[in-house]
Amino acid sequence: MIVSDLIKRKVITARPDISIREASKIMKREGIGSLVIVNENFSPIGIITERDIVYAVADGIPLESKVAEIMSINPVTIDSNADISEALALMTSRGIRHLVVINKEGNVVGVISITDVIKAVGVIALDLAIW
Questions:
Q1: CA distance 91 to 38
Q2: CATH number of the domain to which 122 belongs
Q3: Which end of the chain has fewer surrounding CB within 10 Å, N or C?
Q4: By C-alpha distance, which of 69, 55, 54 is closest to 19?
């Protein structure tokens, strides 16, 4: 199974100049735990997660501040054709819960979570056990 098989919805992206409040509203509306921040070429330059927002609030950063102030820059990416075992290894070694999936041109095509990967690995293990 490859990484692109795990993408379940259209990727939601935003520009780095939106506010933390606006990013929160987008994440709530879309039911997502992370938001990929892209440049004008649709290349990922950052990611903001629920945890980033919680930490910002705890640190007293105004919600009208730009997401660029709190986003993780240079998000970890994975090619859409990579095997899910590579995604699991990458997430485990980097201690992250979201991977930005890119195509061969370097453009964002989706985001996968550790939950997506674990569910897929479990299904594969189950299939192997049946055989």
A1: 21
A2: 3.10.580.10
A3: C
A4: 69
CB–CB of 21/44 below 8 Å?
A: no
- For residue 106, what are the β-bridge partners? none
130 vs 29 pLDDT, higher one:
29
| Residue-range definition of the domain harbouring residue 41 | 3-130
Of 71, 93, 80, give the one whose Cα is nearest residue 17: 71
Phi, psi of 61 (to 5 degrees): -75, 125
Average pLDDT of the residues in 91-119: 90
Amino acid at 97: R
Q: What gap in Å lies between CA 98 and CA 87, rounded to an integer?
A: 10
User: How many structural domains are present in the chain?
Assistant: 1
- Whole-angstrom CA distances from 131 to 15, 119, 125 are 47, 19, 10
In sequence order, the 6+-apart residues with CB closer than 8 A to the CB of 41 are 107
Residues forming a β-bridge with 66: 19
